[in-house]
Design brief:
This protein has helices spanning 26-58, 67-90, 96-117, 127-140, 143-161, 169-224, 243-249, 253-256, 261-264, 266-275, 326-371, 378-406, 418-430, 454-471, 501-504, 522-532, and strands at residues 228-233, 238-241, 283-290, 296-309, 315-324, 414-417, 440-444, 449-452, 477-484, 487-494, 536-540, 547-554. By secondary structure, it is of the alpha+beta class. It folds into 4 domains: 26-207, no CATH class; 228-324, 2-Layer Sandwich (Beta-Lactamase); 330-406, Helix Hairpins (Orthogonal Bundle); 414-554, Heat Shock Protein 90, CATH 3.30.565. A 5-stranded antiparallel β-sheet has the order 2-1-5-4-3, sandwiched between helices. The radius of gyration is 47 Å and the shape is rod-shaped. The protein starts with 25 loop residues before the first helix and ends with a strand.
């Protein structure tokens, strides 16, 4: 089965123009056909030359060379000379039709001379006129009638002049009449065939143009798709791979075509194995994609599979259409998280004050009791009461965090130099004795500004630094501040054990914590503050270990 040539992206390439393409000048078509006629003439003349030489060699040695053979050799040499001359002129000729007419005329003259030398009306080479007429029809179309008329005239004049040369008049007239009728019929038939050939060529040209337009439309449609389109053969190898597919999976189209789908898209290969020969209209797979910085990230792709069939209904493989749903799934998770936070906020606002007031009463009562303790066991009682007071203070701090999370104060944004603000916060953080002298390395770009609330931004950075210090107490923390187009990227990296995929999906949920004794409100508060600043938070755990939390904030205009 014939197949179309394909571009590196797998899209069928446009059909190349042929010799009958309407985009080519008519002269190019005639030039090609005239070249074929010249090559045929050379072959025929070479055959005549070989026949003359064989006849000369086969003659007795005492016999002298016949004048006719010598003249025939001269005609053959003249034919070679004219062919060479026409070939040289053909390369530079602008009007190919005139050159073709001259060549047909010279062929008729040479044929007449050949017929004249070999018996005139009774010559065995009278059929050469028919070859010349067919050649004229092939090159010039309707001019074949004029060529047939001229051939008849030359043949009859030469035959009539030869009357009385020893040939019976009746036989000569019969030969002249039969050949003349044959020339006329050949001219008419060749003209008709030339017209049919021209019409077939025009039809072929129009069909070629339609096919090229369809191929171009097909290529434009596939190139303009925003979703990935892949076709797979029955052997599991990629047949086509459009530009959108290459962008989604982070590959070049030329690198994917011809390779097994299991190497290009492992998740798709696994999904295809689960459905066998059936058609899956919608499914989702996870695909690891290399970003521009070389880091691989997992993307969620929505995939549909359908059979790839030919015009006879035979299955040739699979058609795969997919889209990147990563951002959509992130938005859905963000909406779900926002709903959860709103529910937590309503709950916190309703019970926080109810809990705080009894806690204040308990704390005050315990302090009074501790001051009145005397006698035996007073010291032990005061120690127990101090534990109660400490736990009450811890609960009070938790309630304070819950209230801040549930009822955040209004933002008071200022224009901040991100690098200078970060350096100031890091100095305070490194001097905090509760963190055991954590070490922080700052990598920052100059002239990077953001519009943010200073207090809330400090709260975000403090939470991230404290989590990093607790994850790897003896390892330095790396903080990067980079300008990235319309955003400012703030990244905090630690060298701790990392976070599992299961826990990573729940880190921003309130009251979810992987630390013993953690409240689970730190990262939830960070996420809320960054969302209020129209930014985003991403968590990445490289294969080498550690955790990198990246905060993106809109750059100051």
């Amino acid at each position: 089965m014939a197949t179309l040539a394909r571009t590196p992206s797998g899209v069928p390439a446009p059909i190349p123009s042929g010799p009958n393409d309407r985009t080519q000048p008519f002269a190019e078509v005639s030039r090609t056909r005239l070249t074929y006629v010249m090559l045929f003439r050379v072959g025929l003349v070479t055959l005549l030359l070989a026949s003359a030489l064989i006849a000369e060699v086969g003659a007795p040695s005492e016999t002298t060379t016949s004048p006719v053979v010598g003249t025939l050799l001269g005609l053959i040499v003249a034919t070679y000379a004219l062919t060479i001359a026409f070939a040289l002129v053909l390369k530079r000729a602008r009007n190919v039709s005139v050159l073709a007419a001259l060549q047909v005329g010279s062929d008729l003259v040479l044929t007449t001379m050949l017929v004249h030398l070999t018996g005139r009306g009774e010559s065995a080479f009278a059929f050469m006129y028919i070859i010349v007429i067919v050649g004229a029809a092939f090159v010039l179309g309707r001019i074949a009638l004029a060529a047939a008329s001229l051939a008849i005239a030359l043949y009859l004049v030469d035959g009539i002049v030869g009357v009385g040369s020893g040939v019976p008049v009746r036989a000569l007239v019969r030969s002249l009449a039969v050949n003349a009728v044959a020339f006329a019929a050949t001219g008419a038939l060749a003209t008709r065939l030339a017209a049919e050939l021209r019409r077939a060529g025009e039809h072929l040209v129009s069909q070629g143009v339609i096919l090229r337009d369809l191929a171009a439309l097909h290529e434009d449609v596939i190139r303009g798709l925003t979703s990935g389109l892949v076709t797979i053969g029955t052997d599991g190898r990629v047949l086509t791979f459009n530009t959108a597919a290459a962008e989604i999976v982070g590959r070049r189209p030329g690198d994917a075509v011809g390779r097994p789908i299991a190497e290009v898209m492992p998740g798709l290969s696994a999904l295809q194995a689960t459905i066998g020969d059936g058609a899956l209209r919608r499914g989702e797979i996870a695909q690891l994609v290399a970003r521009g910085d070389g880091v691989k990230e997992q993307r969620t792709l929505g995939v549909s599979l359908s059979p790839l069939v030919d015009s006879r209904g035979q299955v040739l493989g699979r058609i795969v259409n997919f889209q990147d749903l990563t951002e959509l799934r992130r938005m859905e998770a963000a909406v779900q998280r926002a709903e959860q936070l709103a529910a937590v906020g309503r709950l916190a606002a309703g019970i926080a004050h109810e809990i705080r007031n009894p806690l204040a009463a308990i704390s005050g009562s315990i302090e009074l009791l501790s001051q009145t303790q005397t006698g035996e066991g007073a010291r032990e009682n005061r120690e127990l009461m101090s534990i109660v007071i400490r736990e009450v203070e811890r609960l009070n701090g938790l309630i304070t965090e819950l209230l801040e999370f549930a009822r955040p104060r209004s933002m008071e944004t200022q224009r901040l130099d991100a690098a200078a603000t970060m350096a100031e916060m890091l100095r305070v953080f490194e001097n905090d004795k509760r963190l055991g002298g954590a070490r922080v390395e700052l990598l920052a770009d100059d002239a990077v500004e953001v519009d943010a609330d200073p207090a809330q931004l400090r709260q975000v950075v403090w939470n991230l630094l404290r989590n990093a210090a607790e994850a790897a107490p003896d390892q330095p923390i790396v903080v990067e501040v980079r300008g990235n187009g319309a955003f400012v990227k703030l990244t905090v990296r630690d060298r701790g054990p990392g976070i599992s995929e299961e826990h990573r999906a729940r880190l921003f949920e309130p009251f979810f914590s992987t630390k013993e004794g953690g409240t689970g409100l730190g990262l939830a508060t960070v996420h809320r503050i960054i969302e209020e600043h129209k930014g985003s938070v991403e968590i990445d755990c490289p294969t080498g270990g550690g955790t990198a939390i990246t905060v993106r904030l809109p750059r100051a205009r």
